[in-house]
Amino acid sequence: MSFLASNSKKKLYEFQETLGAGSFGTVRKAVVKETGEEVAIKIILKSRLKGHLEAVEREIRLLASISHPNIVRLIDWFETRHNFYIVTQLATGGELFERLVKQTCFTEYDACEIIYQLLCVLDYLHKRGIIHRDIKPENVLYLTKATDSPIVLADFGVSKQTNAKGDQKITGLAGSYGYIAPEVYASEGVGDLYGLGKGGYTNACDIWSLGVVAYTLIGGYSPFCAQTPEEFLDEVRSNNFVVFHQKYWKDISEDAKDYIVKSLDIDNRRRPSAEQLLHHPWILKHVAQKNSTKALPQQRNIITNIQGGFNAAEKLRKAVRFVIMKNKLAKLRVLRKQEGEEFDSDSEDFVFHASPTKSNVVMDFSKLSLDELRDKEHKAEEGARKSRRQQKSEHLTLAFQNLVRLAQDSKERIKRYQDEEDRNSN
């Protein structure tokens, strides 16, 4: 595909507000001019890839090869001299937890329905030799705003294609802290588990991540206390690490607890496959209830579990993000001027665009603790050992991430900062 043809493709879309930001670029909402269809466009800055363009090409090929009602659908892709553009189905219903905290009722049945849909996705992917490697609530989206909306799994940026048997081992640290399976850390020499060492890992890492999601979805908090990978490995060396605290789990079925324990088996060789877990009693009973014409049995409303855990952590994250954003905004203006020669006409794609109504932002900062955020800020500031060019790129990336993320919390405040930035750049 020529860059000329790609520029013509770009003109087919009307780019709108920013939905998310990451290390390699942004995600923008857009409208297909001819049909009015709303889509999401992932814009990846090639200079951020440091020569690894094949990673994006691999993601595109992977998305083009799959089709499932619970996986975000690839619509189109194109590239320009400086950017890749991946056009996908737009999920308008919001992130999993951000939507749930606004609900008034959520039961074990509802939680099982979400896990069931995600299990079906993993069964589909794993049978095609695909390991997602980043299963987490931020990558689980509701397709629409309807109360009975299905969920879709998004972001295949770190996915890997292996053999269909599911026994091919891969290496490389990928995923989000708190959801990464222990054998993934072990494969990178962080620690040794059951003699696995650096032998690699299989698609069982996705089962672990989904087990963490299931625990968090029902209990409202993480099953782990560790703050570092090393502490995490120490914490989970025994299968007795999974604790179901009476206050939050007293009304939850033993089948649900058994499902979680089996998913979080420290030995990935014992961990059930997605196909096996689809035949777990917790899932089978759920499917039977779902297909039955009988009224569902009364279940405890556990929405307060989720709201309590999510809101407490979010309050702290808001305060920290605002401090970081203020510190970085000034650097953003300077660095954008200094690196101006690196941006072509596509640079507009990376300017912050706040939604006039609502912004659904998806990025990894939502899972960071206060210490992790401070550590990230500290590491961003120390660049003595790095080249001036690399240091500028890191500051620019962090500034964009924090600026976009804060839009979700205070659109009016961000708008004032954006206006100030625009005035200073003129």
TrEMBL record:
GO MF term set: ATP binding; protein serine/threonine kinase activity
Gene3D superfamilies: Transferase(Phosphotransferase) domain 1
Signal peptide segment: none
Positions of the UniProt region annotated as Disordered: 375-396
Positions that bind ATP: 46
BP-aspect Gene Ontology terms: filamentous growth
InterPro entries: Kinase-like_dom_sf, Prot_kinase_dom, Protein_kinase_ATP_BS, Ser/Thr_kinase_AS
Pfam families: Pkinase
Skewed-composition ranges (Basic and acidic residues): 375-395
Domain Protein kinase: 13-283
Sorted UniProt keywords: ATP-binding, Kinase, Nucleotide-binding, Serine/threonine-protein kinase, Transferase
Full protein name: DEBR0S2_05204g1_1
Family: Belongs to the protein kinase superfamily.
